[in-house]
Design goal:
By secondary structure, this protein is α/β, with parallel strands linked by helices. The chain has 3 domains: about 1-40, no CATH class; about 50-300, Rossmann fold (3-Layer(aba) Sandwich), CATH 3.40.50; about 300-400, ANL, C-terminal domain (GMP Synthetase, Chain A, domain 3, 2-Layer Sandwich). It has helices at about 25-30, 70-75, 105-115, 130-140, 145-155, 180-190, 265-270, 310-320, 355-365, 390-400; strands at about 15, 25, 50-55, 65, 95, 120, 140-145, 170-175, 190-200, 205-210, 225, 230-235, 250-255, 260, 280-285, 295-300, 305, 310, 325-335, 340-350, 375-380. Helix 4 (about 130-140) packs across helix 5 (about 145-155) and helix 5 crosses helix 6.
């Protein structure tokens, strides 16, 4: 800060956190010196409330501008008595904000509890041992976590002894969850589970799978659920035309929760948020005859091998069914014969070992032959961004170095 301060003539005040420096104001002291009076600044519902940055797993993060109306849309849609039990709040609820606040799963979840007058317990940073402490100390009734965080918490040896009796619902989403991990969490937490699908650009959740659909063996359990009231979902082909049930295409959505746009990126805004109000999510999936949405993967992560479309999430689920596999990621690598070949990157559970042949043969019993990994790499951990999403781009890069395009 000292090096660049002279280059910032417009900066009037520097406020420090995490210790700071003597020549600048400490955050706590600056905050406590402010007036508690209402500043009486007129605010329109169309004004931007929060600008959150996308996770940037396939490119540079973009600033999604979310208005007050975006946040209010879903909570004010319909009558309170018509909402399902998992989506009802009371002032007796204790909400754990365990995800980072720069993520819609953190700030969006925090605003939801604040709106309904619930008590909010905000984690300084995600720490699985402290999450268990919060359950014991504060009697958490609701929380949202991404699958990677759920895995860290449930695999703590102490998790089996913690009292989760006050926990009513665990909501999860932001990335695919292996079926084995979900089953493990259901056994430990013994509460209602709600899968949520959404993105920063939709101000969070737009589709939900309720607890009653979390039944092992039920086809719907593989889905993300159905659109929430006030949300439209469509599956579009490459030309933007709607597809019939069970045909895979790009997921599009239209609702009052769609962002105002990307900050200072008009072209990116226009390609994502069309003039007709439909937002292109960049996710591939299909809908069944009853309106349940099934997510395949990010369109940019799709592998095309021998002309067949392969979605990493399906292969990863098969890999994670292996009893000794902790987590896995699937990428496409160049292949002279097939264009791209499926490669698995696997993290084994502590003390467990397997060969590439073991892993490949295991998946061959569960998915179609052309989707089976052709090679396996073992790593001690998968690279992730701060919101827990696997950085497939980082895993792919060594194999695509020197090529003009990331398709073969």
């Amino acid at each position: 800060m000292r090096q660049i301060k002279d280059q910032l003539p417009g900066v009037r005040t520097v406020i420090t956190t995490e210790g700071g420096a003597p020549e600048w104001q400490d955050f706590a002291a600056w905050r406590d010196a402010q007036s508690g009076d209402d500043p009486r600044v007129p605010i329109d519902t169309k004004d931007i409330a929060i600008q959150l940055y996308t996770s940037g797993t396939t490119g540079k993060p973009k600033g999604a501008m979310l208005s007050h109306a975006n946040f209010l849309n879903l909570v004010q849609t319909g009558n309170a008595e018509d909402k399902p039990e998992w989506n009802r709040w009371s002032t007796d609820d204790v909400s754990l904000v365990a995800m980072p606040i720069f993520h819609i799963g953190g700030s969006g979840w925090g605003v939801m509890g604040l709106y309904h007058g619930a008590r909010g317990v905000i984690a300084r940073e995600f720490d699985p041992t402290k999450v268990l402490d919060f359950f014991e100390q504060s009697g958490i009734t609701k929380l949202f976590m991404v699958p990677a965080a759920m895995q860290f918490v449930v695999r703590q040896p102490r998790a089996k002894t913690v009292d989760f009796s006050r926990l009513k619902y665990m909501l999860y989403g932001a990335s695919p969850i292996p079926a084995a991990l979900l089953k493990e969490c259901i056994e430990i937490f013994k509460c209602g589970f709600v899968q949520m699908y959404g993105m920063t650009e939709t101000t969070g959740t737009i589709v939900a799978l309720p607890p009653e659909d979390h039944v092992e063996g039920l086809e719907r359990m593989r889905s993300a659920g159905k659109a929430l009231p006030g949300v439209e979902i469509a599956i579009l082909d490459a030309d933007g035309k709607p597809l019939p049930p069970r045909e895979v295409g790009e997921i599009a959505t239209r609702s009052g929760s769609n962002m105002a746009g990307y900050w200072n990126l008009p072209e990116a805004t226009a390609s994502t948020l069309r003039g007709d109000g439909w937002l292109r999510t960049g996710d591939a999936g299909y809908m069944d005859e009853d309106g349940y949405l099934y997510i395949h993967d990010r369109i940019k992560d799709m592998i095309i091998s021998g002309g067949e479309n392969i979605y990493p999430a399906e292969v990863e689920n098969a890999l994670c069914d292996h009893p000794d596999v902790a987590e896995a990621a699937v990428i496409g690598v160049p292949d002279d014969k097939w264009g791209e070949a499926v490669k698995a990157v696997v993290v084994m559970k502590p003390g467990k070992q397997a060969t590439a042949t073991d892993i490949i043969n295991f998946t061959r019993e569960r998915i179609a032959g052309y989707k089976t990994p052709k090679s396996v790499e073992f790593l001690p951990a998968l690279p992730r961004n701060p919101s827990g999403k696997i950085l497939r781009r980082q895993l792919r890069e060594p194999y695509w170095a020197g090529k003009d395009r990331r398709v073969n």
